[in-house]
Specification:
- The protein is an alpha+beta fold.
- It has one domain: DNA primase, PRIM domain, CATH 3.90.920.
- It contains 9 helices and 12 strands.
- The strands form 4 sheets. The protein has a 4-stranded antiparallel beta sheet with strand order 2-1-3-9, with helices on one face. Strands 6-8-7-12 form a 4-stranded antiparallel beta sheet. Strands 4-5 form a two-stranded antiparallel sheet.
- Helix 1 runs antiparallel to helix 3.
């Protein structure tokens, strides 16, 4: 795994980015979909005309079709692409609040997602997350840490399946996102979301409460390229999660890695 160059990012979004699958991901959404991109916050790589915007989050809420969103991504060549999980009543509301990422509670609801990242797990070699941060390795992870994250994703999926019916798992390029789209959960308030998260952490699950509780609205866009590791974010079937290996799984490998 390595950082994708600007040329490789452009190549991916021009030639491989699957719009049909992106449209299918959002087929049940009745709300405007707001997208976002980060060009070079962590990699430091940005096209010359976007160098000043490299570290900021660019909100994409002015587009006529998903094809136009693709054109934005080809132009930006981002290290990361996201969508806003908030459910907005209309485009006026979406455009009013989507650009202020600090605004919370200004939507009708929000998709419930759990984020499991390998760097959050303690490694006998690399230490705790705090120790990694002190070494400026907060985004780094090893094979063992990934396996710990994968095991937790399998266990969490099994537990959540007892209470929820509509669950999707996405490999983010680093760890796993578990999306719950049961209708009632969309309208849970923050208190109810936090209650579930804290119950899970009390039972030993390692997770960042900010994502499921709503403090972080953006989530990585499925089928986008994670430019930090040169892997494609792809949904993973629940019965394949335990065997999934992003090192060799062809669905995660952009074509530029085979050249």
């Amino acid at each position: 795994m390595r950082v994708a160059s600007l040329v490789e990012r452009r190549q991916y979004y021009s030639q491989e980015f699957n719009l049909a699958k992106v449209r299918d991901w959002f087929k049940a959404w009745q709300s405007p979909v707001v997208f976002a991109a980060v060009i070079g916050r962590h990699t430091g790589l940005a096209p010359e005309n976007y160098r000043r915007d490299g570290a900021r989050t660019i909100v994409i809420d002015e587009y006529e079709s998903f094809s136009e969103v693709k054109n934005y991504l080809i132009d930006f060549r981002p290290e990361s692409a996201y969508y806003d999980r908030n459910i907005y009543g209309d485009w006026n509301q979406a455009r009013r609040f989507a650009n202020d990422l600090a605004q919370l509670g200004r939507a009708y609801g929000q998709e419930l997602v759990f984020d499991i990242d390998p760097e959050n797990f303690t490694c006998p070699i690399h230490g705790t997350l705090e120790e990694k941060m002190r070494k400026h390795q907060g985004l780094s992870f090893c094979r063992f840490e990934f396996q710990l994250a994968q095991q937790e994703a399998v266990q969490l999926l099994e537990l959540l399946s007892r209470s929820f019916s509509y669950i999707s798992v996405v490999y983010s390029g680093r760890g796993f996102h578990i999306h719950i789209t049961d209708h009632e959960t969309v309208f849970w308030n923050r208190k109810k979301r936090l209650s579930l998260v804290r119950k899970l952490t009390k039972n030993g699950f390692v997770m960042d409460e900010w994502v499921p509780a709503g403090g972080v609205r953006l989530i990585r866009l499925p089928y986008s390229l994670n430019g930090l590791v040169s892997r494609i974010a792809v949904p993973v079937a629940q019965n394949q999660l335990g065997l999934f290996d992003p090192i060799v799984d062809e669905r995660t490998l952009p074509k530029f890695l085979s050249r």
